[in-house]
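Researcher: Next sequence.
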Amino acid sequence: MFEIKGFTPRLYQQTILNTTIKNNTLVCLPTGRGKTKIALLATIHRLNNFPNSKVVFLTPTKPLAAQIAEEFKENSTIEKVNLFTGETKPEEREKIFKESDVIISTPQGMSNDIINGKIDLRNISMIVFDECHRASGEYDYVWIAKQYQRLGSYPRIVGLSASPGSDLEKITEVCKNLFIEDIEVRTDEDPDLKPYIYETKVDYLEIELPKDFKEARDFLLKGFKTKLHLLKQLNATDTVNIETKTQLLFAQKELQKRLSTGERDLALWQAISVIAEAMKIQYCIELLETQGIGATYGYMKKLNKEAETTKVKATKNLVIDENFKAAYFKVTNLFETGEEHPKIGKLIELVTKEIERCQKILIFNNYRDSASKLKEELNKINGVKCELFVGQAKKNGTGLTQKAQIKLLEDYKAGKFNVLIGTSVGEEGIDIPAVDLIVFYEPVPSAIRTVQRRGRTGRQEKGRVIVLVTKGTRDEAYRWTAFHKEKRMHLILKDLKNKLMLSKPKEVTLSNFSSKIKIYADSREKASGVMKYLVENNVDVKMQNLEVGDFQLSADVIVERKEIKDFVDSIIDKRLLDQVKDMKQNFEKPLIIIEGDDDLYSVRNIHANAIRGMLAWITIDMKIPVIHTRDYRDTAEMLITIAKREQGDSPGNFSIRGEKNC
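Model: Next structure:
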């Protein structure tokens, strides 16, 4: 029998555990209130009640996975807790899975293991979905939950999140995708949680935007309004009262829809370019208002440099816009005279004052370039040793591998430095105990991100949060947006808990695995929706490094799948010529599938006759059929239909081809 060790469950944790025992449950607690401990209690219950079964704990990132694995080992008698990473070879993962009681993994790796048949979902007694607000759209959580609910012998799902969303549609989608049957939600004001809570005081420091900054912003705002009026003249929008990036993206999407239906009005192309200009101006305004001159100057200078060589009209047109030029002139003068946003001075003053009584300070900043500047300035303060915690993607040398992220957090906990500046990668679930002070360099307009940032303090003693707000800017708008979204989130969750009775999913009878058709798929296709759809429809998918094509459906049939943009790109870079010749030379029945509903002739700047010529050569000269599909589902259904015809009464009775013929 497995047991807990090293901690005593709190009353609310025991209450929530009782719900997870009975139903698939969404657990919504503020950050730092012990969601992982509840998952651990549920894990022990499932393993003890379903001997020889396994529990899978999914979490978005490797640093999070490493922390959770350590917590499971420290706080339970479960010894066979193993961490799955992308570095582990597939054959080793299969062996580790068989030997484990608990597997901690990222969803991407788990999806690949399910597709490859390396993991038997029938023997998993529970899956925990950490940061489960991600369970929407095409994120791997959605597909994994669906497969588990379909194939698991005794499925149980627990979703964990501090903030699953701020609107009914979003939260309902998460519940539906994870087959949630009950919701347990608590706030720090709830009576069973309140006794365990240390007060977190939130202060807002208002900062005045300097006159010179306002003058530069006024030029940008004037330019932005000019673009909006032009969009209305081009019939791209029906209003000039557009303020957010979301509104611009929606307008852009609507224009692209019109293009995809074959509409060829030159005004459409012009409007798309103008929207791109407007978004660039909007980004400049945000940098100027919330970050500072250095970040704004760097971005505007980059646009001017790009305009010298790029063929992108939006960039070229923007840098010659009179308002943009005037703003750039003002920003350049401010940069050259060493002027900076007063936030930087306020932050330096704040950290200088607080470092004497704070062991650890955590600063959140949205932008890597600004974060790097802040690190440089803060390290000049006596007694401050500051490091930067950012994501993996390299940008100006500030990227960190996941291994480096884990090491950095360990050093921070050990006190090797006392100030940490984090971008959004530090918001989600990262365990940073005993943070005395958190500073938001800017508010964020998201309830999810605000709750997660704030929850990094107040875990073991009273916590403090200071938010820097520039008056009369989007900082103020974002502050109140987040506030109202958070309030709305709690109301929706409690309403769903009381009113929404989600029916328990029906029992699913397992299919007869012996009659599966088999499809060999190139390993480069593993991230595509096609692969997941095939597995979902009981196809025996074998991932291999195929020498020719993307999918082999029989000894004779090979399929090259190309999304529309990739098809046109492969004409330009001449890849398609070699691919077609290889298919023709090595298989009796080659086939090309072009997937997508975009306009084939407008996705790239290439003459339509070049595309028609290639299609004519493939179909007439090479005698290879070309099939058009709407999306990945349509492609997968076509592959299944052809595979069934080819494999007939002996499904799966063929082998992958060896090396291609020369």
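Model: The chain is about 45% helix and 15% strand. The chain has four domains: 11-196, 200-207+341-471, 211-336, 517-647.
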